[in-house]
Amino acid sequence: MSANRINQNINITIVYIDESGSLYNEEIIMPKNSTIRDALYFSKNILSIKSIDYLSDNIGVFGKLKKLDSELYDNDRVEIYRKLLSDPRDSRLIRLTKQRKTKQNKL
């Protein structure tokens, strides 16, 4: 394969962690100027996951939110984010309340 042919493609990684903590990590080779939407379409494993809502779940590249029509570059990592199960502030408040009760019971 010629060097020119190789340079017309980019390597992309798509990652997703489901509710049970299972990691889906897929590497694909795509043509230059491909978008996130293209990467999801070309993916063999990610599209089979029924719990992903591609229209409402947030998608990003290296931790930065992106739109589906965003262009990808060589070695980009497309990340599919799940909705939070609970608000982190609420979770922290619950933990603090439990810790305070534990301290009061020890006194």
From TrEMBL:
Pfam families, per database record: Ub-RnfH
HAMAP family according to UniProt: UPF0125_RnfH (MF_00460)
Protein species of origin: Candidatus Kinetoplastidibacterium crithidiae TCC036E
Record InterPro entries: Mopterin_synth/thiamin_S_b, RnfH, RnfH_sf
UniProt record similarity statement: Belongs to the UPF0125 (RnfH) family.
Name of the protein described by the UniProt record: UPF0125 protein CDEE_0598
Organism domain of life: Bacteria
